[in-house]
Design goal:
Elements: H1 7-15, H2 23-33, E1 41-48, E2 60-64, E3 75-78, H3 81-89, E4 94-95, H4 99-104, E5 112-115, H5 120-123, H6 127-130, H7 148-156, E6 159-163, E7 169-176, H8 181-197, E8 208-215, E9 221-223
Parallel strand pairs: 3-4, 3-5
Antiparallel strand pairs: 1-7, 1-8, 2-6, 8-9
Helix pairs in contact: 2-8, 3-7
Length: about 230
């Protein structure tokens, strides 16, 4: 159930479409716009100056947000028998190569799939299932490791993954509306720092084209992205 929009909220919604806002002010506005009773996610969308037709300009990676994302991730660990006990200890929800057959039969009730280099050959049989869902483990995404237990721990502590879509836009959650503005600000800055460092050498011109912030139920707010543009 949602609250009725107040006159003040209506005015905020009306004005946010008219200009770009400094990052900190954008986060304050998001808090004013939040009117639902659940803890909304705070999401960021960044349009990049990349050529999506070129494979070497696809942006993907991961980072640990300073204050986590506030989301609980359901993790499947496709690891060797020797590592099963370790990944369970650190919080993996589903463990073992037996899940390969379950995935072939249609099961994908998970948020993240991690694996190890020495079992990737076995996992390739389900790449056409996991790939389109953004779940296929890969070194570039940081979901393949010789220390999968460490990876599980990091994901539970707030590691997030991102990848540019076919329009050259990155979408990601950077926290919850219940987070303080200070914590949200630090999360966004760390996310943008990682994204800027991920710029492919072959990308020419402006790399950061636009930034928008929103919550699960709110309108988007255009952020002044010039602070992230290297002079």
């Amino acid at each position: 159930m949602t609250k009725k929009l107040t006159k003040n909220r209506k005015n905020i919604i009306k004005k946010i479409s008219k200009k770009k806002y400094p990052l900190e002010e954008s986060l304050n506005l998001l808090k004013e716009l939040s009117f639902v009773k659940f803890d909304e996610s705070v999401d960021i969308s960044v349009r990049l100056g990349i050529d999506v037709r070129l494979s070497n300009q696809i942006i993907k990676g991961s980072l640990i947000l300073p204050h986590g994302s506030g989301k609980k991730k359901c993790i499947l660990a496709l690891v060797t028998k020797e590592k099963e006990k370790d990944v369970k200890k650190y919080g993996a929800d589903y463990v073992g190569l037996d899940y390969i057959e379950k995935i072939k039969n249609g099961w994908t009730n998970i948020d993240v799939v991690i694996s190890m280099p020495n079992v990737m050959n076995q996992i390739r049989s389900i790449s056409k299932i996991l790939g389109p869902k953004g779940l296929m483990p890969s070194l570039n995404m940081g979901t393949v490791s010789v220390n999968p237990e460490k990876l599980v721990k990091e994901i539970k502590c707030g590691r997030i993954f991102f990848k540019s879509d076919r329009y050259g836009i990155i979408h990601s959650s950077v926290g919850k509306i219940s987070f303080s503005c200070k914590h949200l600000l630090e999360n966004v800055k760390e996310f943008m720092k990682k994204l800027i460092h991920s710029k492919p050498p072959s990308s020419k011109g402006d790399y950061i084209k636009s930034i928008f912030l929103s919550t699960t139920m709110s309108n988007s707010i255009s952020v002044d992205h010039q602070i992230f543009v290297k002079k």
